[in-house]
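Revision sheet: structure tokens.
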Amino acid sequence: MNVKPHSRDLISAPRGLGWILTYRANLAPDQACYTIRDTTLTRGELDLQANRMARALLSRGVKKDDLVAICLPNSPAHHIFAFAIWKIGATPMPLSPKLPASELREILRLASPALLVGSIPGVRLDLPVMAGDFVPDPLLPDHALPEAIASSVKAITSGGSTGRPKIIVDGRPSTLIPDEPSPFLQIRIDDIMLHPAPPYHSAGFMQMNWGLAWGAHIICMEKFDAEDWLRLVEKHRVRWAYLVPTMMSRIWSLPDKIRNQYDVSSLEVVIHMASPCPDWLKAAWIDWLGPDRIFEVYAGSEGIAATLITGTEWLQHRGSVGKPAQEVRILSEDNEPLPQGEIGEIYFRMPTGNAAPYRYIGAEARKIDAWESLGDMGYLDRDGYLYIADRRTDMIVSGGVNIYPAEIEAALEAHPHIFSSAVVGLPHADFGRVPHAIIELEPGSETLTAQDIEAHLTERLVRYKLPYTYEYTSAPLRDASGKMRRSALRDDCELRLMQGKKFPGLRTAR
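Predicted:
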């Protein structure tokens, strides 16, 4: 490889991610690049282990542009395998180790990967499997491999809006410009990044690995804990941090005495994404850290669109996710353009000759000519800022009126004793579907009465948006990446209704 140790010449052309890891290691082999609990890897250690693992994968028959599934939790092994896969020009497909067995089987059937790294206990699969704690033969060389580039940098799975799994194959190659971090994500060369999201989610997977390629020290968490997050910011003098709104809520729910005892002055960038953030929570973080430190990203793994909004902009366009760089249309159910301020399905169009190079396995893209949709509903304001109402398939049509679950959930979660909520549409004899609220309380909170919840909601929502029924749950409604399987929750509620379950009513007042 043409990488000179300790070379300081800037590299401004795209290179393979595996090549870049070696480049970083040659610049500073003893510099820490990944820390989780008491384990820290240096750049040199990560690169040498990835080199040896790459040769182990080659010996298993993995070839250029093969898909390799990684079913592992947050760990050094996840990144060793990812870079090993890139080093041989193959494509990693991160999977959650908590997937239900039936969904894992369906994903693997659709993707037909050359190899599965890790597994789910009790699931027998008809494909080659490599244990997550696999250690390559120490006789395998650990020096650099020839530069290889995969045609697809990653394949990301999704439960899909219908509940059936789909795979989004990113058509961009596994390259990056080594010394030009993306200004969009605000990451710097040699940054210090705290990333508590799981690596099977698109944001966690790419942001952590991009950070490693740009020389960052990634501080990772096996499992998110609000106070531990603050402790890590102080201990490592973290400059860049990623969160999802559920994590932001957990941190904000800490007593002031605990939250304020940690020094978080090193933070310059706090980026949140993955799910809607309630306005009150966003405003609280802006007030706490300052508007110039809070950033929100709206994007999809497809690469159709991406927006970023600063805290300062958000205060001027409260509730917006930013101003899209792409062309945007808001369309009605009849695919007619809607005027400013009206909610419809959001369609994006990339510049001519610059279409997002992705493909689905197990689903069809929503397209109208050159316009594409992620399936989200929303509207534009007069300045061109985008606002997200909800997923198209999550919208509840009740008596001919469109009701957006995300709006009801935001109102519910403004209650100090409600940690999280999910609103789904359940069958109703008169209205077709009516909203039903599933509520996860803050730890230690007493159960609220229907009257308590109704009084809280009527201050924030018109009456037709109030849930008809509700229930409490002790199970987390969102996974570690902030995502909610709403279709699965709805199916479970409908099954219980069919089995004779009666949910308590919420609309008590006349």
